[in-house]
Structures are given as structure tokens and as C-alpha cells.
Amino acid sequence: MRHTRSYTFRIALVALGCMLAIPPAHAAPPLRVAQLESLRYPLVEVDAQGKVSGGLLKTLGDRIAEKLGTSAQHSLWSRRRTEAAVLAGDADIACYLSPIWSDEARDGLWSIPVLPQIERVVALRGKRLPSPAPQDFKGLRVAIMLGYHYPAIQGLFDAKAAQPVEETRVDNLFRLLLTDRADVLITSEAEIEGQFRQFPAQRERFEVGKQAFTTVDTQCLVSPKSPWSLTQVNAALKALVSSGEIGRLAARYGLSMR
To answer: Which of 145, 31, 142 is nearest to 79 (CA)?
Structure first.
């Protein structure tokens, strides 16, 4: 009888071990978050191994996943491939995008507005800082990113009433001002904050306009092939917005909501 009980006990332990080793059938799948590899601090941070390690958008993705009752898996994609990856089902979601920037995903599954992308005007401290009004840019050399469009002042550029000075890197925009090859620059808050984090001494050398030059409400693109629906993602985002967490998150990374 003692042998039988011992044998039965061992069988029970083996069965329990097997049950613990098998994940529950209803386990939630991870939220696969596509991040743009071109973005840097404060939006995305990448470690020495090339993996997403921090930044506002990683934190946002993690919090969306938590609201969905799962965990986030972050992967890097080129700007050209990000939306295609989401539409094809290779990722569930990508944020800090806008349908007005996209031809490929214009009719995709877009979430509620989440974070604004705000562009501001920057000048050397002590120099004239124009307001966002187009007429304030008359006669100025304006440092801008190559390939970007600025409809508000394009008419001035076309009429030669203002001079665009194009660059391919944000740090070079600031260098144009430091070397007196441009009077002002226009770039996003995130790029400004990233520049000042990389070059802390420059924060005191430049003045950033308090009024937004442009504001675009960015959204999350949700894959039509994701196990997570647009309704679920929107519910998670609405909870984060209504609690004020999105605003606090933006402030933590040096960005504003308007």
C-alpha cells in the first residue's frame, strides 16, 4: 500500500509539472510594436545591440500593451517599410504616424489622436525670433530639412522673399545658425529636445519659439491582421489620455501637448 501511494504521488507530480510547462490556451499574444529606426531620443532609444531600449514611444507601446493585458515586443523598421509591415501583419501597431503623411496607409485602421508633432522656430539667443506668421519670415534665411514641406512659407520661397537653406541632418540645422549661414531653423520639438540632450550647452545658446509653427496630431496605425482590434487599441488609448498619463509622459520627455 505504501508503494502504491508513493507511485501515485509521483504520477501526480509529473502531471502537475506537465500542466505548469504548457502555457494556458487563452494566453494573450504579445503586442508587436513597430518603431521607426530613424527616430531617436526622446522618441526612441536604441542600445548597442540595436534593440529598442527606451524613449517615449517605447513607454507608450508598453502602456498600451498593459492596458490590453499583454506585453509589448518592439522592433525597428525603416520609415519606408514601417506602414507596409503593419498592413501586412508583420507588426500589430505603429505610433507617431499620420494618415496625412501616408499614401500607402491613408485608408488604414487609424487610432484616435495620441500625441501632437509640434514644429517650432529656433534662433540664436539675442537674435530676432519670428512668430509663426508667414510675413515674419520675409528676408530671412530659413534652415529646413531636405525633402520636408512647409506650405505656410512656401510662397515666400517661391517669390524669393525668403531663402530656404536645406540640410539632411538636424544637428546641421543648428550648425547653420551657429556659423551664420541661416537666421532661423524650423524643426520638431522632439528633434530640438534630442539635439539639446546630445549637446547640453546649446540649450542656453538658442531660443525656441513658444508658439507652434505647425501641429499635426499623430495616431497609431493598427494592422487589419492583428489579433488586437482597432476598438481595443482605441479603448486603451482613451484610458491613457483621459487619465492624463499621455500628457505626463510627453512632459517627462520634454515635449508638450500643444
So the answer is: 145
For residue 42, whether the previous peptide bond is cis, meaning omega lies within 30 degrees of 0, is yes
Closest CA to 190 of 46, 74, 41: 41
- Kindly state the cell numbers that stand for 164: 530656404
- Average pLDDT per run of 10 along the chain, which is 258 residues long? 47 46 66 95 95 97 98 95 96 96 84 97 97 97 93 96 96 97 97 96 97 97 97 98 97 93
Q: Do the beta carbons of residue 59 and residue 183 sit within 8 Å?
A: no
Q: What residues have CB less than 8 Å from 167, skipping those under 6 apart?
A: 143, 144, 145, 146, 173, 176
Alpha carbon 169 to chain centroid distance?
18
Count H helices, E strands: the chain? 8, 12
Is residue 132 within 8 Å of 209, Cβ to Cβ?
yes
Q: Name the amino acid, one letter, at 5.
A: R
**Which amino acid makes up residue 62?**
D
Contact 182, 244 (CB under 8 A): no
**Predicted model pTM:** 0.84
Chain center to CA of 101 = 14
* Relative orientation angle of helices 56-68 and 230-242, to the nearest 10 degrees: 110
State how far the Cα of 182 lies from the Cα of 190, in Å rounded to an integer.
21
Residue 169 phi/psi, 5° resolution? -135, 145
Closest of 161, 187, 189 to residue 56, by C-alpha: 189
